[in-house]
Every structure is written in structure tokens, then in C-alpha cells.
Amino acid sequence: MSSTTEDPDFHPDSLSLSDSSEEGAVETSTCNIGANLVDLSKRIISRKLSVPKDGISIDCDAISVVISTRTLTEEKRKVIKDFFRVFGSDLSGCSLPDRAIGSSKRSGLFGCSGNMCQHLPEFLQGREMLVLDAPVKVGLHESCMKKVIDSLTTKGYYLFPSTCNGVCFDAQARSNRPPYSIMIETIIDSCHVDGVHTIHVADIGSRFPITADPNNQIKVFFQKLKGMADEGISVELAQFDVAFVVPIANGRLLQVSCDRKPLQQQDDENTKNPLVDKLSMTVFPIHSLPVFEGHKLQSKDIKGTVLLSKPDSQWRDGKDVIIASQEEDLFPATVSEATDLFASSNVNGADTLTTSSSNLFSVKAYSTIAHPLMQKRQTYPLSLKSMYGIGNRSITTIQTLIKNLDDARKAGFNIVRTHGISARIEVSIRPHPLDHLRKMGHLNDILLHVVLAVHGFCCGRKFKFRIDYINLSPVETKAMELVSQSMALLKFRHQRQFNEVYTSLKATEWLRAHLSLLLITIGICPSFGVKYINDWLHDHHRYDPYNISGANIQIRVLGPREGTANKRKKTMLIHLQGFMLSVLKIKEADVKTLIQFIADYPKNNPRECYKKISFHSKIRLPNLLWSEIIPFMSRFMSNETTKADNAAAGKRKRGKMERENQEVPGPGDLDREDDDSNWFLQQEVVSSSSIQEVIAKAPMPSDPICIAMHSLFQISSFSDPHRPGFTAMLFSFIILSHTHTSQLELALEHKIDHRALQLAKRIAEGSQTTSQNELKYFCACLRICGTASNKSKKEYLQLLCYYYQYPCKDVTPKSITQGKRRNQLLHKVMDKDLATVVMQTPNIIRIHRNADDNVIDIFPPEKVVASGMQADFIIKFSHRNMYRVLAQCFNTSETRMRKSLHGRMSSLQKIHTSFLASNGLVNKDFNGANTLEELQKSNHFQILFTGKISEIQKSLTFVPNIILPMVSLVYRRDIGFYDCQADETIIFTSCNLLTSRLIKYEFKGLNVTPKIKCAIILLTKDGEYQWNKIVQNSISQIVEQNSYCNHHYFCLDTFAGRTSTGTNAKQFLPNQNVKRGQPFYKALSMLLTKLDPNYIEQIHQAGRSNNGETEMLSSENDELGIISFLEQLYSCAKPINVFSRSLKVHCRTYGLALSTVVAGLKNKRANELDHKFLCPIVCLQYKFTIGVLEIAANKERVTHFYSFDAFSQKVEYKLFRGYTALIDRDDVIYFFTSSSQTGYYMPNNIHNWKHDRTIRTNFSYLSNSNFTRVFQIFQDKYQLSVVSQQLIDSAQFRPEITTVAIPMRVTCNDFGTSLLRMMQRGINHHALILIFPCQNSRIEGWDACIVHHPLQEPQSAYSVLNHFIQGAPDEGNYNLECIKGKCPENSEASLYMLLYAYIAHKTKHLTHFRAVLEKVYTEDNLSEKVRLWVHQVANRAGAGVNVNEDMNEDIPIWIEQMTADNPG
Fold first, then answer.
1. Residue 1412 CB: number of other CB atoms within 10 A?
2. pLDDT at position 1448, please?
3. What are phi and psi of 1029, to 5 degrees?
4. What is the pLDDT of residue 346?
5. Chain CA centroid to CA 649, Å
6. Dihedral through CA 499, CA 505, CA 507, CA 510, nearest 10?
7. Cα(48)–Cα(468) distance, rounded to whole angstroms?
8. pTM for the whole thing?
């Protein structure tokens, strides 16, 4: 066919219409045809997936074009340059490749590194090199390297040839990069090979949009191809991928599945598709797997990613197929509509429309969660070979892999939660070398193939395709569980390979399967799919440490029962005992000690076991444990028998692996998969502290053999140079070795001088980091050989261990002398109270305690007090009896306080370890006391008076340095003690530690002020104790003890500190996210969601319009919860004045009454609220400091700052000229706004912005969603009987043992009798219905009450209670009562509901409940105490602490005392 000259974009021969004449040629390139084809594809997908057509977008995912010409005239050079300008301008920068991507298989994009890419001309296959990486990828023949480099050199750009195969330039020497225009000139000048100028241009993953716009870049791309062809240049379109994107709702994941239809349905002529029907199907699982039922997982049962593709070996075997005929309808009406577009202009009666069956290479449907997860694909073992060799990787490498996977899970799932993902259907068109589509095809020709492919995939006769949507939460929970399970078996740090520690082949097979399952659950499907999972499941002797068959998870297998595992452990211990005695020649007594320790672990103490072992064994064990004992134990992890069996099995596995080495490309990696054999070298460096935190949080393994191995990991840690405190212990041992005592002195060859001894003493304290030079100097003093050259700290420590015969890993002295004496020294060192500073920041000091092998985080002293100023006090109560003063302070009686102190302290074992000094050592006042009795005896006091006359004097002896810390620990309240007699100030604080420990800070003089909130006790010079309260203007009110406290430098000025000002905010504020036309309300909610989704109210979407920003703001669509928060503020006991004068001048709205502000707010839309209105509310609620960079209407750049000032308890405002940042502050979030754009700047560390850390602060508020969430935490922790109104059943209306609590909402629609009550009209307050157990004195009768907001009309609350009880069974009577709750001081009404629920749970009947409430209402600082309680419980749960671990641990003592006297 000849082409028409009327349309310059016309390429008819790509799809030949037989017997057509020149006059009747089809104009396949018209814009209308392209738009119709796109629309038709969208309609097919829309009907198949039941989604709106307009929501589907289309883009170009990959292109590959080969340009070649024998002559290169100026006109040809010009059109080639014009083509390259589609991707970038002359001023564009460019990036150079550092590796050969897309070159790992024949179906790849490039022919680099010997890859015989079948889609390229033969002379490029295996001999291509990448020259340019961005803005578009360009490949040339590898023989052009010298010409490219010489050409750039003449232009003044000095690059060097690459030493690795497949790329042109040396990646380590390319800082002087040429611009895009220079690179294009160089490529054109240097592309001559064997008489032909050849350039390969390609790109992948850029996702260029395809739209109906005539100026769309993809259409321009094809016009430029036509322009080059018109100049006589050969243009081959080797690949063109088109993708359709279907968005889904936020918080949802998707799985694609595809089944082969039954044969009888495949014979349906109306659904046949000659292109799609020739493809083969592969399914890659993501997120979940089918239940295993005794056979391997089948592809038909798997859901995740579906790939229909042609095997590489069959691609060139394409045949011409008819896709349209005028004689018969080959397709249903949908596809005929597409082919008719091409035949509509044929006036001579063309017979058929044909194409090659190879032109459609693949169709793929998958979830776009793969895009964020696969950003670091090079760091994961995704190929068959790399996962097969996972056992050869070190323990540290595998731990880093799991940490990286968990980080990818967090980032990817956060995107799902906040932005949502999409389903993506990609069609890859790769024209056959002999087909006209390759050299003469236009965009519409491509789109026709896409329509045929989409129809065949969605409606064809061979495949049945569907998408399932699943909730994010259970998948994320499963992924977190898999991470914990894998880390449990790696709960130690070591550089040995996994298969050197776990020598059983079954353990490595489990690891492959487990990591495969973790990858799949997260959403990363490896290229080998479920191969290793199937291998593991089908092995009857597999290692199954978690007994998966007994758990309700994705896969059920016939795993070993617990009894079988315990039998294996007993067998192992018998063999291990003989092995250590006969082979390793360890002393019999030591062997018995170790065997008994392993059998009883973790019930016993590793430190005590280590002490029982002889010194000779201590020296040998560090090396024998890892080289002999632990590998020996690991052989019993499964039922395999001998090493020969292991070797044979390994040989079979290797042979099978080699046979199956022809992999199928993984999802999301088609044409992208690169060699990942060195994946472990590509991993990002993860800090040792980060890995250590993950290890610490990991649970203990459940397998008895693995637990036994972990027991020895604990023993080995005492001789590990990397252990915190090891250096301090070693130097303590050294000091004792040089001490001249008759019993412990050791004969040493060299003595150390005074300077070296002082250095050793300083290092032994552990308070400072030991440098390499200090260790080198000390070794030189001892004249230890081998110190002439520099060594690492570890090597110097090992030299010292060898010299002093100190147990250390990888150190074996030639002979051991005076072992008994050395053992005595070592035990004395182990018992020594050593504290080593592991890490120090401005906010915390992390200390490792040697005595209990624990790590604690405490405050630096400057964070606890402000020196040089003394607060003003008001005396609340004074008396010479300290207990009476404390009883008044804590709202109890002296007798009850003494009983509480005695009861709690008597239950503590090793009481001295609970009271520490600020350096991490034991508080000297408690030193040496293991029990309360010992403490009282040594200090001559007594807490509890038993009635004996001889004890009167002791019970009236007050030891404030002991009693005050005990009171602080028991009552969970920090105490500041001013001792005028000793002229010192002491602060006792828990430092927010989750464990029950009390830290003591001592300061000379009285001229200091606490910066943490605490009770103030003062001892006058005449011996009188005073309970003082700091006046409102005192500095101690500035900082509250939580993560959102102001820095101590900014106590008196909210906006103090250094500033950075400029005209370009990007210079000092990175991570900008700005959108055009975005309301400030939306930008604020997006940032808060990223900081912590709990900041955002979960809005019910049913019945709402899609554009919520245009609706009037109400409680139903206010995701920031500002309406409910303001309503709570003006529902308090006293009027709230929380906005400063500066803010009221800036935003006059806040000069009005809060009720007026809310009324006006309900008449506004969310997009009408600017930063002036929103920022003060957020600052007040969450104690943020907010900076808003603004381009004002007059184009002036200014910055508005809003912050809650704890000094004045008000929100302050300040204006700065220019873009300004408070660079000394780390608690500021920044926004940008102008007339056209709004956005935010993402903070670097979002972990410091958790919602629950703000609960303790004044004016914080639990929104509806957070109230439900925290109530669930309380329910789980304290075993409360809580049920929702919708889910309550008949039995729960009739409790017999425990009070049933039903959280409710009460809206008062009546006018009250006072102004405050009138203001409650229409406000939906929290309430709590309580149904108490039936009492013995009544028959079929229950007391029920509703505790409601005290400012609401009781009649409204009673109506709610009465209506609710009407749903109860007919049998039985109910006594109904309304109870007013405590009037909130500053929006804590929802927190009181948690208190009421707990009290009801403890009291059992209504009479006692009312009595306890009367006591509660008289409690001093009730608001503060309840906030602290809820804060502790919620944050312990958020930190991963098991809420059921000790349900009484977080109960304040004042609540215990009030609920103790239960008459029922």
C-alpha cells in the first residue's frame, strides 16, 4: 500500500487491509480514531471492574526506538535533535548510568553486558552500552565508547571509560557532567558503526500521560518519528507499553486473579481473541496465600499479580492473524467497533485486517503498591539464586534485610492509608521484526492492538480475570507478625553466616520459605513466587518453629506438635552432654551446669549460671559456643538424621535449583529485573542501635531447640567485646588485678604507672566513651607486642584480654594460670554496679547497667531543672510529721499511705535496683539493701507501725531521701525536695520510664526550679515539712513532662533562639509538598495524617459527596475535629481564656466568645478556613509550634508563627518578615501558602510527633475516633466488660459478675435553666451507661445508670438511658438513675469516662459506685492525674508493651485506695 500525502502522520501499512487501493486507504492516524480507541478500552475496563470510566487514566509505561541511517546529513541531524527535544530542552541537565539496567534476560530492554536482547537488531544484541540515563535512556554499540569520550573531551568535559561492562562512563569520576544538548550532539557524532549510524532510545517506568490533547507529548513523539522517517531515517519501534490505572479507596489493598475458562467456554466464537489466546499465564502472589490442604499451592488458587506473556523462545515465531474481515464478524460488537474505525474509509471493499501474533508481547495486571515497595529492589533477594543462597549470608545481613523490609512495609502501607493505590493493567506491544507495525506503525495502530489486548484479557474466551479488594489492617498485622517471628530466631548480633549458626539444612529451608512469605505479605513478590514455600510445605521433616498448623493464619501445615519438639530437645540435651564431655573435654561440673541452665531457660538467670562455671571453661566457651556447641545443637532442629542425609539433600536441592534456573520475571519488574546476586552489598547501612532496638522488641522463639540455643547466646554475650559495658568490666578486672591484696593479687610481668592507672579507673567508670588512642596508650604501657601499628578498638581489647587472661570471643590464651583467683576477680567485677553511657543527645542519656544487663533512658540534668532561679511557692500544708504532709499532698490518710508504701515496697526483690542516681548507678541511700526490711534496719526507720512500743521511735523517724523516692515510685508522681538544712535540691522522677524505676537528681543550693511537673516538698531549718505549690507564674509550669515540651532555652520566650531568613525556603526547609488550589484545611490534615493518623478523625463516608471541601463544616465531615474540640472548651467549669492579645489582633474571630466562634464555623466550608483560624486551634490542642510561610497579596514574603506558651497557658502569635525558620527548635511544623498554592514541609523525624504523647497536656482532647481506640486499650488492659450499643446482646443486659459499660453520646435539645446549660444545646457529649450485677437481695433486678456531662439537662440523659433499657429482655426489672459526672476544667470530659468505667468495674454495685465518685470529685488535681494515667496506659500500648503483662502496673495508688473498701 502506498501512503496518502494528505495526512502527514499516516502509516497505513502497519495494519494491512488486503486488496485495498491507494484511493481507499485507511487514515489510521486521525485524532478522532485515537480518542475513540482510548475511550473504548476504558469502557471495557469500566464494565469489567464496575468503576467509573472517567476515573481511569492511561499512560505510556515504556518505549524503545532504534534509529539508524547510512548517511548523516545536516537535515537528518536536525530531525534527530528535534526528536530528542521531546524528552528535554537544550538547558536540561542529564544523568549518566552507573549500571546496565534491563539487561538480565532476552526480553529485556537493552542488550548490555552480553544480554542477547531479542527485540533489538542483531548487531546490538549483547554488544550495547548505556550512554545516557536521564531524561531518556540512550544506548550505543560498545565500540563507540572511545568516540564518545573523545568527543566530550574536545568540548571540555572530561569523563573516563567505565571499567565495568554495559555502561560507557566510569561512575566514580563523572562530577563534571555535560548538559543534555551537548550529550545529544556527542551521541549523534559518535554513533557510527560499520557504515551505519545507530542510536537506541528507550525509557521505562516514567509513565508519560496519554490524553486527548493534540499537543500531548506522546502524540508529538510519534510526529517526530514520522519526521525522521520522512528524511529517510530508518525508525524501528521495538517496544511501546500502554497502561490503564484504576484508583481504589484509601486503606484498601487489591489482588488480581485469573482463571482459565473451561474448554466448552473456550469454544465460544464470540469471545475468541487471536492475540491474547496465544499467551501463557503466570500468577504471582501478594498479601496472602490460599490454605494449604496437603498439596502444593497451585497457580489457579493464587491471587496477586497476573502476567499473560509469550515465552522468550516463541516470540519470533509469530504468524499473521486476521483481526477484522468484512465477510464475517470475528469479534463481538465491542471490538468490531474498534476495527471498523480502520475499515470505514475503505471504498473498494477491503477483505481483511491482519497483524502479527507476536506484536502483543504481554498483558499484566497488578497493584501499584509495588511501585513504592520496589524503589529499593536491588537490596532484596528476589531471584531464585539469591534466595537460595540466603543461608550463606551473615546474621547481621539478614537482620538488616528484615529491618529494611519492615521499613518498606511502613512506608508503603502508609501510602495506602493516606493516598490510596491503584490497579494497573499494562499492555506491552513489541512488533515483530518482519511486521510493518515495527517500522511504519502510528499511535492509533498501537492503540488498536491495546483495545484487542484489553478485550481479550477482560472479556476473552480463555481467561477469566477479576480484582479482589481487601482491608489493609489484617495484612499489616500479619506482616508485623512475620517480622517478629523471623527476628525471634535472630535475637543476637553476630557476623557468622546463618548456616554456620543453624547448621541444619531444614533451618535454611525454613528461612527461605519464611522470607518468601514475608515478601509476599508485604506486597513484594519475588520472581520465584511460591517455590520455596512449596518446597518447605511438602517436606514431611520440615523445621516449623511456630507450629503453623495450630494457628489461624494464611497457611496451615501438618507441623510438629509441641510434644515432638520437646522430645527433640531432650534428645539434644542427652547428646550434647556427651559431646561436651567426650569431644570438647569440658569439665563435668561445668557441663552439668550448662545442661541444667539450657533445660530450665528462660526461667533461670544467665548471669548466675555464668558465675558457676569454672574460669577455665569461661575462657574456652566464647569460641566453642559458636564453632562447636551451637552448630551441634542446631542439628536437632528437625527430624533429619545424619550429616550424610544433609549433604545428599543439599546436592539434590542444588541440582533442582540449577534445572529451574530459567526464571519467570517478577511482577512490576518486567524488563526491569537486574542481576541481584550482590543484593546484600547494596543494602543501606542500618545503625547498630536500630538493629539492637528491633532485637530487643523481638519475642522469644517458641521452638524449644531454638530457645535452648538462645540460652547460650546469652552466656556468650558476657565475653563479647561489642557488649555495652564490656570495656568497663575489663578495666575493672585490670584494676583489681593490680591491687595489692594478699588474697587477690596476681603475678603480672609488668606494672602500670600512675597515669595509666588513673586512665584505667576512668574507663572502668563507664561514664565516658573510650577512644582508640587511650587503648593504644594503655597497651603500650604494658609493653604488649603488636602495638606498633594502629589497630581497631576491638583488636586492642582482645590484646588486653589475652594479656590478662580475660574471657573474650576469638581470644584463647596459651595457658591459664591462677584460674581460681581470676574467677574470684571476675565475679567481683560482675557484681559491681557499673553504668555505661551508650548514647547521649540533648533530650536523653541512654545508659547500660551492668548489674542487671538493662538499658535505660534518662533525662539530662539541664532538662530537669533550670538553675539560677528559684520559684515562688504557696504553702498548702505544713507539719513536722512528713507522712501527714505527704498524705495531704496525695489526697489520702497517713495510715493508708503507710500501708500502701509498705505493701508495694515489701513486694520488691532487690529493692536497691529500683532507685538510681542520675549517673545510672544505684542511689547511695539504697545501696546494699535487697529488701525493705534490710533498708529499714540499716537506716533506723520503720514505715508501718505494728503497735509495739519499741517501734514508736522508728516509725516517727523520717528519712526524706528514702521515703520521698518510695512515695514517688508508688504514687507515680515526681517530687521536688528542697532541703534547707542540707542546702540542696533533689528531684525524684521516673523519667517516663516504662519500667518501675526512680531517678534521683541532686543539685547544690536552693536556687533551682523544676522544669518538670512535680509535687514540691520543703524541709525548713527548724525541721518542719511543707507541701508547697508553685504559683501560676512560676517557670516550672512551662515545661510538661512529655515529648512536646518546649526546649529549656525557650522557657521565657516562645519564639526565642536563632532564626534563618531568606527568599527561598528550600534552602533551609526541605521536603516541600505543595499543590495548586489546595485549601489550607486539606494541607493541614494531610500533614497531621503523615505524622500520626490518630490526629485525624475517622469520618463515615456513606452518603457524603465526593467533594467534602464544598460542604458546610459540621461534626460529620470535620476530620480535624475542631468543632467538637471548641464545643468541649466552652463546656468547662469556668470560661476559658486561651488566646493571647497578639493572636486576637491578628485574627479578630478569637476575640469573640467561643460559642459564637463555633456558630460561625458551622456556616463555613472547610476550604474557606485559612491558617489564621486553624493554626491556633491545633497549637492549643496538640502544643505544636506552627510556622506558615506566606506570599501575601502585595507579593511580600512573611512568616506567621503560632505557638502554645505554657508560661501564660495561651496561644501566642508573632510575625516575621521574609521566609523564616526557628533553627534552634525541633518541635516546629511548617506550611506554605499563597493565593494559588498551599502545602507543607515534612519534618525529618516523624516518630517524635505521636498523638498519644499529647494526652497529658492541658487542653488536649480525645476525639471520637481516639476515644474509641483508647477505650479499647483500657478494655484489653483491665479486662473491662465494655460493649457497643449496636452489639449488645440479651445476656449482657443481665450481668452476674462484672459491671457492663456501654459508651454513649447524649445530645441535649432542651433549653437549660442557666446560661452554661443553655449553651449545651445541640452538643453531642460523651456519656456512659452502666449495668451493675444483680444483687443477692433482689430477684431479677439490676441497677442501671448513665453518667453524663454535668452541664447537660439530666432529662436528656435519662431519656437516652430509658430508650436504651427498652431493648432489654422482658424478664427482669431495672432501677434507672442519672449521675452527673465531674465538670471538666479544660476539655478532659472524655478522659473521665475511662475513669468511670474502671471504677464501675471495681465497685460492682451502684451504691458503692456513687460513694467512690464522691471521693473522686474531691481529689486534688483530678484533671492532671487522670490525664497522666491515660497518657501512661496509651503510650505503653503504643510502645508495643503487652497491655496484659501486668494489669495493675499502671493503676494510680489514689484510685486503688478509693476503690479498695468495697462493701459488696
1. 21
2. 52
3. -125, 130
4. 44
5. 39
6. 120
7. 13
8. 0.64
354-386 pLDDT, tens digit per residue, is: 788 888 889 999 999 999 988 888 888 888 888
Distances (CA, A) of 315 to 357, 432, 463, 576: 9, 8, 20, 59
Look up residue 1232 and give its three cell numbers.
Answer: 506554605
- Note the helical H segments in 155-309: 180-190, 217-230, 263-266
Number of alpha helices (DSSP H) and beta strands (DSSP E) in the chain: 47, 40
What DSSP string runs through 109-140? S--BTT---TTS-GGGTT-EEEEE-BSSEEEE
Residue pair 1348/1306 in contact by the 8 Å Cβ criterion: yes
Do 1114 and 1123 meet the contact criterion of CB atoms below 8 Å apart?
yes
Quote the percentage of the chain above a pLDDT of 70.
Answer: 83
Contact 946, 902 (CB under 8 A): no
Helix axes 443-459, 217-230, angle to 10 degrees: 130
Instruction: Evaluate whether 109 touches 64 at the Cβ level (below 8 Å).
Output: yes
CB 805 within 8 A of CB 817: yes
Q: In whole angstroms, what is the distance from residue 657 CA to residue 345 CA? A: 56
Contacts of 96 (CB under 8 A, 6+ apart): 131, 132, 133, 159, 167, 168, 169, 171, 174, 177
Sheet holding 1025-1030, edge to edge: 873-879, 1025-1030, 1015-1019, 975-979, 984-989, 998-1004, 915-917
Length reported for the chain? 1464
Q: From residue 1085, how far is each of 18, 1043, 1078, 1221, 1231 by CA, in Å?
A: 61, 21, 11, 21, 12
Cell of 1435: 503510650
What whole-number distance in Å separates Cα of residue 113 and Cα of residue 156?
Answer: 29
Specify the 3-state DSSP secondary structure of 314: helix
Query: 1373-1380 and 1341-1348 as β-strands: parallel, antiparallel, unpaired?
Result: parallel
Beta carbons within 8 Å of 247's beta carbon, 6+ residues apart: 55, 420, 421, 422
pLDDT tens string 508-561: 998 999 999 999 999 998 888 888 888 888 887 888 887 664 333 344 333 344
Distance CA 1223, CA 94 (A): 34
Helix (H) or strand (E) holding 1102, with range, is none
Place of cell 509513565: 207
Cβ proximity of 1044 and 1257 under 8 Å: yes
C-alpha cell at 807: 574471657
DSSP character string of 1377-1414: EEEE-PPPSSS-HHHHHHHHHHHHHHH-SHHHHHHHHH
**Residue-wise DSSP of 453-504:** HHHHHHH-SSEEEEEEEEEHHHHHHHHHHHHHHHHHTT-S---SBHHHHS--
Q: Is 90 exceeded by the pLDDT of residue 665?
A: no
Q: If you ran DSSP here, which 8-state letter would residue 1109 be given?
A: G
As a 3-state breakdown, the chain gives helix, strand, coil percent values, each rounded to 5, of 40, 20, 40
What sign has the CA pseudo-torsion 1044, 1049, 1051, 1056? Answer: negative
Smallest CA-to-CA distance from 995 within 689, 692, 1436 is with 1436
Q: How many CA atoms lie less than 13 Å away from 949 in the CB half-sphere?
A: 0
Nearest to 80 by CA among 187, 8, 238: 187
**Residue (of 475, 548, 509, 553) closest to 286 by Cα position:** 475
- The candidate with the shortest Cα–Cα distance to 1043, out of 999, 1001, 975, 991, is 991
How far apart are alpha carbons 1214 and 1209 in whole angstroms?
16
Q: Among 1288, 1294, 1084, which residue's Cα sits nearest to residue 1184?
A: 1084
> What cell does 463 get?
481467561
DSSP strand E in 1184-1323: where?
1185-1191, 1197-1205, 1210-1217, 1219-1222, 1228-1233, 1237-1241, 1281-1282, 1300-1307
Distances in whole angstroms, Cα of residue 1290 to Cα of each of 128, 1283, 1336, 1365: 76, 12, 20, 11
Give the Cα-Cα-Cα angle 1056, 1061, 1067 (nearest 5 degrees). 120
